Structure formats: structure tokens, C-alpha cells
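Record 1 of the preview.
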Amino acid sequence: MKETIAEKLKEVIEPNKEKDNLGHVTIHQARELIQDAGAVLLDARPPAKVNGENAQEADIPNAYYMPYPEFYEYADELPANKADPIVVACLKGWFANRVMGYLEMLGYSNVYVLDTNIEDLIEVHKAHAKGE
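->
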């Protein structure tokens, strides 16, 4: 029996209803996911939107720079385990939300979007790294 488009979309959207704030996380929640749960951080900003270092260059653990316009080129670098937590971030959430949707369509079930500017997360990471 052929699955309808509505059924496919429901399958992707339903798990987000179980997440607080539909999967959007604060900077503190993102740091907890990265530090405590080993989440992968995907910096989805297009190159023109990167001011300074991207998250990977800033040495955030498990961070990868996968710019939205070329996201498909990085698909082989995604975690093999589709249940591993992933935090996607950009400047305003536009690109991160798109990438979250793509990941969910690919079967990733534990995807979150940073609800603030990724530059703030990079700054917090650097401040904590200096203090350690």
C-alpha cells in the first residue's frame, strides 16, 4: 500500500510534538546536549553569513561546518546512528530549521535547533574554554 504525502509528513512532524518547544533549544540546553549527550553541532550558515570562525573552526566538540547551500555535499559526514542527538544552528534559525527538516526526512529522530545566534554559542564556548 502506497504511503500518502500526508502520512509521510505526519511521521516526520509527530516526534517534534514530544519535544519541549518543538525541538528548539536555548544556548544552555544546546551546551548540555553537546557536552553531556555528545550531540553533534551543525553550523548551517552560508559562507557569506559567517563572521569570524564557524563552529568547527572554534573547536566546539563534535561541531561541523555544513553550510546550507551545499548541505547535500556533507551528507556522508552525518552520524551513522540516526538516533544520535544533533543540534543545528545558524544566525536566525532559517537555515537551521530547513536542515532540521531535511534530517528528519532522512530518518534522524533526535534533531534540535538552536533558538539563538550561533555566534553567541561560539562566544560562550570560547569563554568557558579559557576558564578551564
